[in-house]
Amino acid sequence: MKELEYPFDGAKLLQRKKSLKKALLSDGRDRIRKKIAVLGGSTTHDLVLMLELFLLDQGIEPEFYQSEYNRYYEDGVFGTPALDSFGPDLIYIHTTCRNIPDTVYPGPEDGPQQVQEKRAGAWKHFHHLWECLEKRFHCPIIQNNFEKPPYRLLGNMDAWDCRGREHFLAQLNEQFAGYAREHGNFYIQDIDWLAAAVGLGVWHDPLYWHMYKYSPAVPAVPELAFNLSNMIKAIFGKNKKALVLDLDNTLWGGVVGDDGPENIAIGQETGLAQVYSEFQQYLKAMKKQGILLNIDSKNEMENALAGLSRPDSVLRPEDFIVIKANWEPKDRNLAEIAGELNIGTDALVFVDDNPAERSRVSQAGLGAAVPEMTEGHEAQPERYISILDRSGFFEPVSLSREDLDRSSMYQANTQRKRQEQAFADYGEYLRSLEMRAEVGKFVPEYMDRIAQLTNKSNQFNLTTRRYTRGELEQLAADAGYLTLYGKLSDRFGDNGVVSVILGRQEEDSLHIELWLMSCRVLKRGMEQAMLDTLAEQAGRRGVKRLVGYYYPTPKNGMVREFYREMGFSLVSEDAQGNTRWKLDLAGYEPKNEVIAIERRESV
Q: Average pLDDT, stretch 204-231?
């Protein structure tokens, strides 16, 4: 919904929140349902209403629990029947600097020891809250850090003197950050940055606090809710995966086909050229953290490559996975790019300075995000970074090794496709890859990636169940469950963790509650390698049969017959297409013929 895309009009959203919610709920979209507990240190009514709108727009239908005003600590530490029965999928603790009592802030008479004791008391308050919530609910927790205070008693000294409130809050923020670094299911919402971006005068408007106990003030609530929604959709696997970029007046100034590559605005010669170069630097940094870059440009390929090959261009042709420089409709190119990447078109973000092209892609029904990069018909390259950055399309909540290597993995896939075309026999092609798989029980070093896969994988996901890291850690420690991850590498590179299986044992049967695989390694034998290991490990536990389940979704039709192809027998099918399968392990014959399997000692 365009009204909810950044940059949005917060005042209009607050006025139209009921009608917007009604429109969103009637749009027929398929959404995941999540229970979100909001434990507030201030009034959270409008925050929850705004958050609901943004989450609905991002594919999540939320149900909320709200603590009473400033009862966040009591609800979290001592519990309530309502919260306990609610059983949240995620907990958000909404506190601000208003929740630090005046008696806890340092006074001008306090020495370093007194200040340290006060900070230790504030830290203990929150640390105890988090530990209690984690012990009871084992779900993701989002905690605000602290914004800068509304006034500075010590002036500029407030930032560095131990008695300054700003310094006191900054030290607490660092302790909060340290806890987040050590706990994989705990996340910090950086309202310190957000309040500065909104403006401390707007954020801290004292009227809203003293009259209505709103912190931040109501005009800042839409920005806070949007920022929070980006974190939540990232935790639940709703992030975008790839950028599809125009060239002329998007990556550089001017039209390369008309002006020639030597005359486009890029580099350091003019202010405008520097603006485009900074945008390219931003995109290069995004690539390094796992965002896939692609081109969709109305251009001759020769001209496109010439522009990207200029010595002062930050981005080079090899930085892109797919380059479509032609005169085909851009929505058609976009669909082909998604196909070549083997991801859905709804995982793409299309960036183009031309409003006509943006409109066509928006109306094509592809589900791709199309941010408004211009105001009217005027290109505003100086705003490109802020628009993409604040939109939160790729909001990370963790950075795994696979994230950092993703672009090179997709580049390697391109090499594999070329290799495949050189073979008439597919089996010979697979053997030529010299594939090696590491298969093992869930281990802490891969838990972030495993959780990420459970929330991102849609096409090869037989039950489409979603798990948080905390839930996976619990199941991995449960003797009644068998867990397996699979890593795959070959002579072109390492694909990282690409497959996950989770099975629950009941007497001599193992019920496969989750089986998923990254689509970039489909049909390479990893399915058989995982099944062979599963059968072996299940047999060691006295299991005589595997029981598999397939629950159809709009995206996983490709695995409808997967269990049949793996040798399972159909047991039942209901009217909705949900199927149950079984495989007797007596006399099981290994199926993998092309992958060398290394089993970790933990298996």
A: 97
Q: Which residue has the tokens 């251009």?
A: 299
Distance (Å, whole) CA 493 – CA 459 = 23
- Cβ atoms within 10 Å, residue 291: 21
Under DSSP, is residue 501 helix (H, G, I), strand (E, B) or coil? strand
> Which residue bears the tokens 């504030």?
122
Crossing angle (nearest 10°) for helices 330-341 and 355-363: 60
The answer to whether the beta carbons of residues 97 and 147 sit under 8 Å apart is: yes
Q: How many CB atoms lie within 10 A of CB 602?
A: 10
User: pTM for this structure?
Assistant: 0.82
Rounded Cα distance between 169 and 173, Å, is 6
For 66-80, the pLDDT digits (tens) are 999 999 999 999 999
Whether 414 shows a pLDDT value over 80: the answer reads: no
> What single string gives the DSSP state of each residue in 283-324?
HHHHHHTTPEEEEEEES-HHHHHHHHTSTT-SS-GGG-S-EE
DSSP 499: E
Beta bridge partners of 265: 253
Query: How confident is the model at residue 283, as a pLDDT?
Result: 98
Question: DSSP string of 35-51?
Answer: EEEEEESS--HHHHHHH
Average pLDDT, the chain: 93
DSSP assignment of 157-172 equals: GGGTSTT-HHHHHHHH
| Helix axes of 401-421 and 271-288: crossing angle, nearest 10 degrees | 90
